[in-house]
Design a protein that fits this description.
This protein is an all-alpha fold and 508 residues long. The protein has 19 helices and no strands. It has helices spanning 4-36, 40-48, 50-77, 79-106, 108-115, 121-134, 137-153, 158-182, 184-200, 203-206, 221-252, 259-295, 297-334, 341-356, 358-373, 377-402, 404-428, 433-467, 472-493. The longest helix has 38 residues, at 297-334. Keywords: Cell membrane, Cell shape, Cell wall biogenesis/degradation, Membrane, Peptidoglycan synthesis, Transmembrane, Transmembrane helix, Transport. This is Probable lipid II flippase MurJ. It is found in: Cell membrane.
C-alpha cells in the first residue's frame, strides 16, 4: 500500500519529468505550426496520423491498462510466472500489431477516404502516402505501452514518464532538419523514429524482469483466450475513445480550411496542464487502486474517491486561467511563421470549449482505470460506446452552428456524461452508510469548488482587460497569480478537504 511520502515523491517526480516532456511537446507543436501553420498540409498530416494513432492507442492503452491488474494479481501468487505471462501476452500483442500494420497498409486508400471525406484528390493522395509511412510506428508503440504497464505495476514511474521527452525531442529534430528538404514526409518519418525512442528508453529497465519474446502460442492457447476475454472490452473502450477524435476530425474536414489543425492545436494546448498536473496523479495511484481492489471494495473506494476529489481540486484553477486567457496562451504558443492571427482565432474557438471540460477529461480516464481495477471492463466499454454515439450526434449538430467550437463543446459534453455515468455506477455498488457518506462528501466538495471557481472566474474576467495593456507573458503571469492565489485563499475559507487529503493518505 502507498505511504504518503511515497505517493507524493512519485507524483512529484513524474510531474517534473512529464512537465519537461510536455514543454517539449508544446515546442514540437509550435515548431510544426511555424513550418506548416493551420494549412491544408497541416490538416493532411494530422489526419494521416489518425489511423496509426487509433490503432496503437487501442492496442497499447488496452495492454497498459489491462496488464497492471493481471500482472499484480499473478505476481502476488508467483513473481516468476507473472513475468512469463507478460512475455507471452506482449508477444501475442506484437503479432497482432504486425498483422494490423500489414492489413492497414494494403487498405490505406479506403481507410483514408473514410476518415477524410472532405479532402480533395491531391490531399487524399498525400494523406495515403503519409499514413503508410507512419503505420510501422504501431509496432514500437505497442512495445512501449507493454513496457510502461510492467514498470508502472512495479512502481517504477521514471522511465515511462520520460517516453514523451524522448519522442518529442526526436520529432522536433526531424522537423527542423527535414521539413525544408523533404516537406511533410520528413515530419512523418520523425513520427516513426519518435515512436521507436519511446520503447528504447524503457528497455534497459525492462530487462531486469525477464521479459522476453515468445514464439510459440499454441501451448498457451487456453491462457491467451481467457486473458483476451478480459482484454477485449478494454481494447474496444480504447478504440471508442479514439473514435471521438476521428469523429471530430471527420466533421472538421467539412468546415473551413485549417479546422482540423485548429482542433489539434487546441487539444494539444489543453493536454499541457492535463498531462503535467493530473495524469501523473492518475498514473501513480492506479497500481495502488488495483492493490486495494484485491483487498476489499471499501479499501478501493476510499482511495478512489479521495483521488477524484484531488483531481477536481487541481483542475479548477487551470480551467479558470484557460477560459480567461486562452487567446493569449494560443498567441504565445503558436502565433509565429505560418500561424497567423486568423489561425489563432479559429483555434481559440475550440480551445475555449475544451478548457471548460478539462476536469472531465481527467475524471473519465481515472474512473476508467478504477473499473479496470475492479475487472468491470464491460461497464467501462459500454460507457465509451455511449460517449462516442453521443459525440457523433452532438458534433454534427453543434458544428453547423458553432464551427470547430461546436465540435469541442460536443466532446466536453460527452466527457461530462460519461464521467457521471461511471461515478453513479460506483455509487450504486456502494454498501452501507459509510460508503454513501463518502460519495456525498465528493459531491459536497465539488459543489464548493464550483462556487469558488465561479467567484474567481467572474473577478478574473472583470480584471482581465486591465492586463491586456501589458505584454502577453505579463498578462498570463498576472492572471495566473491572481487565480491561484484567490483559489488557495477561498479553499481555506470554504474548508475544502482536498487541501489536507495527502496528509491522511496512509496505508491500511
Amino acid at each position: 500500500m502507498p505511504t504518503r511520502s511515497h505517493v507524493l515523491k512519485s507524483v512529484g517526480l513524474v510531474t517534473i519529468i512529464t512537465a519537461v516532456g510536455k514543454v517539449l511537446g508544446f515546442g514540437r507543436e509550435s515548431i510544426i505550426a511555424a513550418y506548416f501553420g493551420a494549412s491544408s498540409t497541416a490538416d493532411v498530416f494530422f489526419v494521416a496520423s489518425l489511423i496509426p494513432t487509433i490503432l496503437f492507442t487501442a492496442l497499447g492503452s488496452g495492454l497498459q491498462a489491462g496488464v497492471i491488474p493481471i500482472y499484480l494479481e499473478k505476481k502476488a501468487e508467483n513473481p516468476i510466472k507473472a513475468d512469463d505471462f507478460i512475455s507471452l501476452l506482449g508477444s501475442f500483442f506484437m503479432l497482432a500489431a504486425g498483422v494490423m500494420t500489414i492489413v492497414c497498409m494494403i487498405f490505406a486508400k479506403p481507410l483514408v477516404m473514410l476518415v477524410a471525406p472532405g479532402f480533395s484528390g491531391a490531399e487524399l493522395e498525400l494523406t495515403e502516402s503519409l499514413t503508410r509511412i507512419m503505420l510501422p510506428s504501431l509496432l514500437f508503440f505497442t512495445l512501449s505501452y507493454m513496457a510502461t504497464g510492467v514498470l508502472n505495476a512495479n512502481k517504477r514511474f521514471i522511465l515511462p514518464a520520460l517516453t514523451s521527452t524522448a519522442q518529442n525531442t526526436v520529432i522536433i529534430v526531424a522537423t527542423v532538419l527535414c521539413a525544408a528538404p523533404f516537406g511533410v514526409e520528413g515530419l512523418a518519418w520523425g513520427f516513426v523514429f519518435g515512436a521507436a525512442s519511446q520503447f528504447l528508453i524503457q528497455y534497459p529497465s525492462l530487462k531486469r524482469y525477464g521479459i522476453r519474446p515468445v514464439l510459440s502460442f499454441l501451448p498457451h492457447k487456453r491462457q491467451i483466450v481467457q486473458t483476451l476475454s478480459t482484454f477485449y472490452p478494454i481494447i474496444i473502450a480504447a478504440l471508442a475513445i479514439q473514435l471521438n477524435s476521428v469523429v471530430d476530425r471527420i466533421i472538421a474536414t467539412s468546415l473551413e480550411t485549417g479546422s482540423v489543425a485548429a482542433l489539434n492545436y487546441a487539444n494539444r494546448l489543453l493536454w499541457l496542464p492535463l498531462s503535467i498536473v493530473l495524469t501523473p496523479l492518475i498514473t501513480v495511484l492506479y497500481p495502488s487502486i488495483v492493490e486495494r481492489a484485491l483487498i476489499s471494495y471499501n479499501a478501493f473506494l476510499e482511495l478512489t474517491l479521495r483521488g477524484m476529489k484531488s483531481l477536481v481540486f487541481l483542475a479548477v484553477p487551470f480551467v479558470i486561467v484557460m477560459l480567461v486567457s486562452g487567446n493569449g496562451l494560443i498567441t504565445l504558443a503558436f502565433e509565429r511563421g505560418a500561424f497567423d492571427a486568423s489561425a489563432t482565432e479559429t483555434t481559440y474557438t475550440a480551445f475555449f470549449f475544451y478548457s471548460a471540460a478539462l476536469p472531465f477529461f481527467a475524471l473519465r480516464d481515472y474512473l476508467m482505470n478504477a473499473f479496470y481495477a475492479l475487472k468491470k471492463t464491460k461497464a467501462a466499454m459500454y460507457s465509451c460506446l455511449f460517449a462516442v454515439l453521443l459525440n457523433v450526434m452532438l458534433s454534427w449538430f453543434l458544428s453547423r452552428h458553432l464551427g470547430v467550437g461546436g465540435i469541442a463543446m460536443a466532446t466536453g459534453i460527452s466527457m461530462l456524461l460519461q464521467s457521471l455515468y461511471l461515478f453513479c455506477c460506483l455509487w450504486l455498488k456502494a454498501d452501507g452508510r459509510k460508503d454513501t457518506a463518502v460519495f456525498r462528501d465528493v459531491l459536497l466538495e465539488s459543489g464548493k469548488l464550483l462556487i469558488i471557481g465561479a467567484i474567481i472566474y467572474g473577478l478574473a474576467r472583470w480584471l482581465h482587460p486591465l492586463a491586456l495593456a501589458f505584454p502577453i507573458i505579463v498578462e498570463l503571469v498576472f492572471i495566473s497569480l491572481l487565480v491561484f492565489g484567490l483559489y488557495l485563499g477561498l479553499s481555506m475559507v470554504f474548508k475544502v478537504s482536498s487541501l489536507k487529503s495527502w496528509s491522511r493518505l496512509k496505508s491500511k
